[in-house]
Design goal:
By secondary structure, the chain is an alpha/beta fold. It is built from seven helices and seven strands. It has a seven-stranded parallel β-sheet with strand order 3-2-1-4-5-6-7, sandwiched between helices. It is globular.
């Protein structure tokens, strides 16, 4: 049995191939998780004996179902889920390609629904679970060009809040972390002056660091957080 903060826990992280998702998966591994399952559209990028990677497109419901069938060959339980996978197209609504808008709905909203749904079925057996969604400050700040992305991230909090009520009797909590801007491939798609202007207007006017994110994840995932559910925490002072 491993030792550490997450000893005895099996964790599923979506979008684990790079960026925030990879950092989250590595955090659980570095803190003793028995197994970390990674879902991503591409091949795995983490080399660790306790890491198991599956190529899953969370925006495709059939792919998610097949991914869970495959992971059940590795483990019969999941205690913690981090719904991190997301896509972003930042563009004015009148010129947003419908396909890009649909992709954001599929990956950013339907994906977490499917992953949470399937994971909760496994959590029910052990009467313990933590579902953590990675949201965005866009849900609160509603920046120009992010209509569909912001709507999906706002919907993610609502999704968690409803599931929190549905899963409460199973001792499964559902919460959302609204992250600030952080250096990533996704952020690189956006005009830097636009990002800098948003950051400058925050009560804590700086970009997020990995540790800011991991700190809240540890809080939501903790044994002592059994009564913390249906909550959204925004970084940087966003409200």
């Amino acid at each position: 049995m491993s030792e550490g903060l997450y000893a005895g826990k099996v964790v599923l992280v979506t979008g684990s191939r790079r960026g925030v998702g990879k950092a989250i998966a590595e955090h659980f591994l570095n803190n003793g998780a028995d197994k970390v399952i990674g879902f991503a559209r591409g091949a795995g990028s983490i080399d660790h004996p306790n890491y198991h990677h599956f190529e899953v497109d969370v925006g495709d419901t059939e792919s998610v179902i097949k991914g869970f069938a495959a992971l059940k060959q590795v483990t019969d339980s999941i205690q913690i889920v981090v719904n991190n996978a997301a896509v972003l197209t930042s563009q004015y609504s009148m010129i947003m390609p419908p396909a890009a808008a649909q992709a954001m709905v599929n990956v950013n909203l339907l994906g977490p629904f499917m992953v949470s749904r399937e994971a909760a079925k496994m959590m029910r057996k052990r009467k313990w679970g933590r579902i953590i969604n990675i949201g965005s400050m866009a849900a609160s700040l509603e920046p120009i060009g992010d209509s569909m992305y912001a709507a999906c991230k706002a919907g993610l909090s609502t999704l968690a809040n409803v599931m929190a009520k549905e899963f409460a009797t199973m001792n499964v909590t559902c919460n959302t972390l609204g992250i600030n801007a952080i250096e990533s491939d996704m952020l690189a798609q956006l005009p830097r002056d636009k990002i800098d202007a948003i950051i400058a207007g925050l009560p804590v006017p700086r970009m997020s660091k990995e540790d800011d994110i991991l700190n809240v994840i540890d809080f939501f995932a903790a044994e002592r957080s059994a009564q913390i559910t249906a909550q959204t925490v925004f970084l940087g002072g966003v409200n």
